[in-house]
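User: Can you help me understand a structure? I only have the sequence.
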Amino acid sequence: MDQHDAILSRLLTLHPKKIDLSLGRTERLLAALGRPDLSLPPTIHVAGTNGKGSTIAFLRAILEAAGQRVHVYTSPHLIRFNERIRLGAEGGGKLVDDARLKAVLERCEEANGGQPITFFEVTTAAAFALFAETPADWLLLETGLGGRYDATNVIRAPKATIVTSVSLDHMEFLGDTVEKIAYEKAGIFKPGAPAIIGFQHEGAERVLEREARRVGAPLFVAGQDFHVREENGRLVFEDERGLLDLPLPRLAGRHQHLNAAGALAALRTVAPDLPLIAMEQGLARAEWPARLQRLLRGPVVDLAPPGAEVWLDGGHNEDGGRVLAEAMAEFHDRAPRPLALICGAQTTKDVGALLRHFAGLAREVVAVPVEGEHKSWPPEEVAAMARAEGIPAAAAAPNVEEALRILASRRFDQPPRVLIAGSLYLAAAVLAANGSQIE
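Assistant: Let's start by predicting it. Here is the structure, written out as tokens:
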């Protein structure tokens, strides 16, 4: 157990009895801490349903390739809480160490004085305290939920804001249409701060553009003000400043081309003097765990059918299912293999909508629980949903390890491609079981 885990457990008990989307608790704690949010480096604030973390990964990799010191705040973590807070340093940022994390959490706990506050709010305040006292050139800040009332939205004057793809997720908090959800995400837009709007469904784009204009945020809209395409094995990005001929992103899947474009559009707006070589190196180096991550070795991989490819992704909603299925289809076109899907999801997610995109693509689904999550769909129900969505070969297993053993017992005409998806919590458990480290 890490030395800060006991403090994190205590902070969880302070959650308000009533759900109250508000910035008041965060602002109260920040005031008690001396307002570290007013002493942060130039900030790029990122919201959206899918693609936030990947976009931040591209931003960080490009800026660090240019020699910049970059703070990063993301959530949730996969294996250790420290992953949420990366402190900028010469030669590349480092995850906050246990001693500094414990000290700042103790300071926040004392300043809060036992008053009701959510876990995300108090840990966001802790991150801001660390960012304010550690010199850096940039802060890349990811929202946790929504945008308008997200604890990160106490930032008054970001250098730029980005809204990545908006789709249906967290509907119990944000609304039951993409338009309502887009309205909540647009809450991060600020007067005078460029608003970069990634590739969107039409209804979401309309709302985002309207809200940016309403607050006086200069607009940069994907498909209008910047464009991206793959050409001859290269990524071609184009905006009013001209055309960039770049390497394809290291992160797999065509959807990552769109995330990379949003990052490039933002940096071309707020840091126009970044050298081309930094953009090239950043795209080629960017890493983001559990986003179409290929597992090459480890105890989990050893259980897969001999010669199988094993891929891991935290995609957990319908749009995530769509881009995953598109990526798997693209992989199949390049190097045909039978596809087997291991899927686990929480009951707050529409797993049937995710599975729908794999009909006619996945040879078999093996459903598993999301271990440690009381809101996990029972595997038998997920298997039934897979059959209802047109994937007749669907079985249930008690865990990922047993699911892999089941697949290893099957007869495939060639080694399969195995995709494990449906939940970030499931992805985290797989990485931990495989002995993976996140640095």
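Now, to help you interpret it: The first strand starts at residue 43 and ends at 47. The mean pLDDT is 94. Let me know which part you'd like to focus on.
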